[in-house]
Write a structure and sequence with these properties.
Elements (H helix, E strand, L loop, with lengths): L3 H4 L27 H21 L11 H14 L6 H32 L1 H14 L4 H12 L3 H25 L3 H9 L4 H35 L8 H10 L3 H29 L7
Helix pairs in contact: 3-11, 4-5, 4-7, 4-9, 4-10, 6-7, 7-9, 8-9, 9-10, 9-11, 10-11
């Protein structure tokens, strides 16, 4: 059969239906599936699997308590407390340490990232230090910090700060290096000084990367919190989890992990909203 048999089909006569144009043969537009709906379904499936495994006792309740038992323990700890403090007091202590460390990481990490992104000297000084600290787990330098700064709150905040510092600084440096050269040249041609270029051009352009670094830093901070609260802590979510683990109170351990996950998710949601307000142009240019 020749190619013309396909390419030169006669036009359909009036009243006749073309087989290639019948309604059922036309491609229908696909409906977009909401990511939130998929996330909700995933969470429900995980909860259902957890409940079924607990009901059928596929795993001992000592190792995997049921969701109902975890919820009951959440109510009890929130009302009566655990290890001499209520859940709110543990949560407040942990939030104070994480936010104090985040502020310290911003005050140090953003200028360091700017120095790395703008100056070759700054890159030569700070980049090796960050690359040295970044792969070291907090438990490795925790004993040294305790020896230097004692067992008080400063040592706990410092451990979390060090874990947060590298993401903030490196994200800031990446954002600075990604600033459009045309914007910098345009500002200089209008008579802007070096400080004005940094303040009005480089920082706003690097702000999306800085906020991304804050999101990564918060995750690193929460993961370091448990290690930081091992040092002579009397309150905190990490301290509560460690104390419960020593006595095999697994429902408190699971409850503490879920509380940390919910708080971290809420902070992530807040930062994303802030990002939409402050940098609505991110990803559009």
């Amino acid at each position: 059969m020749s190619v013309s048999a396909y390419s030169e089909r006669p036009a359909a006569k009036a009243g006749e239906t073309d087989g290639f144009s019948v309604p059922w043969s036309r491609p229908r537009p696909r409906r977009a599936v909401s990511a939130r709906l998929v996330s909700l379904i995933t969470i429900l499936i995980l909860l259902a699997a957890w409940t079924i495994a607990a009901q059928l006792k596929l795993v001992s309740p000592v190792f995997l308590p049921s969701p109902a038992a975890v919820w009951t323990k959440f109510v009890v700890v929130a009302r009566d407390g655990f290890v001499d403090a209520t859940l709110l007091q543990h949560l407040t202590a942990s939030l104070w340490r994480v936010f104090a460390a985040l502020i310290a990481a911003i005050l140090v990490g953003v200028p360091v990232g700017l120095a790395i992104g703008i100056s070759r000297i700054g890159r030569g000084v700070f980049d090796p230090l960050l690359e040295f600290l970044r792969p070291i787990p907090p438990l490795a330098y925790l004993p040294l910090i305790v020896i230097w700064f004692g067992i008080g709150e400063p040592s706990k905040i410092l451990v979390i700060t060090i874990a947060m510092l590298a993401p903030v600084a490196l994200s800031t440096a990446a954002g600075v290096r990604g600033v459009s050269r045309e914007r910098v040249d345009a500002a200089r041609s209008l008579g802007a000084t070096r400080a004005q270029v940094v303040r009005h051009v480089i920082l706003p352009s690097a702000l999306p990367s800085i906020l991304t670094g804050l999101r990564i830093a918060l995750g690193a901070g929460w993961s370091t919190l448990v290690a930081a609260e091992l040092v002579a802590a009397t309150r905190g979510l990490g301290f509560m989890i460690q104390s419960a683990a020593q006595f095999l109170v697994t429902d408190v351990v699971v409850m503490g992990i879920l509380v940390i996950a919910i708080i971290a998710f809420a902070l992530e949601f807040v930062i994303r909203r802030i990002e939409r307000v402050l940098v609505p142009w991110a990803g559009r240019d």
